[in-house]
Design goal:
single chain, alpha+beta, Jelly Rolls, eight-stranded antiparallel β-sheet, four-stranded antiparallel β-sheet, 4 helices, 22% helix, 30% strand
Length: 208
Amino acid sequence: MIIDYKKIIHKDCGKKIDIIKDIIITPFYTEDFCDELVNISKFYSEKFTPYITYYDHVKNKDTQEHPWDTLFFSKINYFLFEDFCKQYETFITPIIEKHFKPENVKGWFSPMIIRYSRPGQFVKLHNDTSEFTLNVKLNDNYKGSLLKFPRQNFDNKDIPKGWSMVWPSTVTHPHETTPLKKGTKYTLSSWSHPPSWSHEEMGGSIKR
């Protein structure tokens, strides 16, 4: 797979910026590349693995077995992971370092393509094991599965395909996903250091 990465970066990435309730919103990928990532996800469908959460299996054993399926960028093409980190460092990190000073991004784990494909799939209210989470909407031809931040009274309903949301992950921005009603949802999620996950568990990592 050969990708000219410069052509897939949205022309306004890191330039057109909104910050709503400490959530950074900026374009990230072109819509065409989002469609390509969805097609890649379908091609690599068998490489998706169930993501099993601590909350589902320890605290709430009566809940669904796993809320979503995961495909790491590193399983598709490691160069795609490296190029993602360069884009993040060039366009996203300066916004984080300005708005959340003195916090900074120390590195990244392999981004995850997250798939919700079964009606009723949802994610309970939680925080991520990441200093900052970046989320990119890869498609919008589904119903339900809304990403919500109850504490901020904010959701991603009006976030366009290809745009990213970035937020501090460990305390202030607990979030949840409402049940999927129809279709299949694809999302790109990126977690930054320092989380308590091993290099192997998160598909490899790159440090600054």
